[in-house]
Amino acid sequence: MGRRRGFSAKHCFTGLLYCAECGEQFRRIHWNNRGCKSVVWRCMTRLEKKGACHARTVYEESLKQAFVDALNQLTGGSETYLSILQENMTEVIEMEQSNLPEEIQRKLDVLQKKLIECAERHEDYEEIAQEIFRLREQKEQALRENVSQQEQKDRMRELQEFLAAQPHHITEFDETLVRHLLAKVTVSFDRLDFTFQSGVAVSIEK
Ligand SMILES: [Zn+2]
Question: Domain residues of the chain, as ranges?
Answer without folding.
Answer: 1-77+170-206, 94-167
